[in-house]
Each structure stands twice: as structure tokens, then as C-alpha cells.
Amino acid sequence: MSLYMLPLAIGPWQIALIVVAVVLLFGGKKIPELMRGLGSGIKEFKDASKEEEQPAEDKKE
Fold first, then answer.
1. Does the first or last residue of the chain, that is N or C, have fewer Cβ atoms within 10 Å of its Cβ?
2. How far apart are CA 35 and CA 41, in angstroms?
3. Domain segments of the chain: what residues?
4. Crossing angle for the helix pair 12-26 and 31-53, nearest 10 degrees?
């Protein structure tokens, strides 16, 4: 593994540390709401990218 790829190597301890930090920052009750918002944002992004792929004459407004 080359030296510039080293920061991209995330192991189980790093993931556990990130999860603990997120729980401490946001609290256990706030995390489901954050994930719901993230999921809806991803869904909107996918829908918008699908609309861009359609030709202009296929769009009905």
C-alpha cells in the first residue's frame, strides 16, 4: 500500500471511534432523525439526477 492511500484505510477501531463521536455529539435520540434526513436527501438527489437524464421532449410540465 502506498503512503498516499494510508488515510483511506479505515479499520474497525476507526469506525467504532467515529460512531462513538457521533453519538456523543448528537445524542442517541437525534441520530434516527439525522439518518432520515440523510436518506430523504439522497432520494431527492437520485430523483433529480434521473430527471436530468431524460430528454427534454419527454418531460411533461
1. C
2. 10
3. 24-51
4. 110
Q: Could you tell me the three cell numbers for 1?
A: 500500500
pLDDT above 90: percentage of residues in the chain: 18
pLDDT value at residue 45: 92
Mean pLDDT of 21-36: 86
Distances (CA, A) of 48 to 21, 34, 38, 43, 59: 32, 21, 15, 9, 13
**Whole-number Cα distances in Å, 35 to 14, 15, 16, 39, 42:** 20, 17, 17, 6, 10
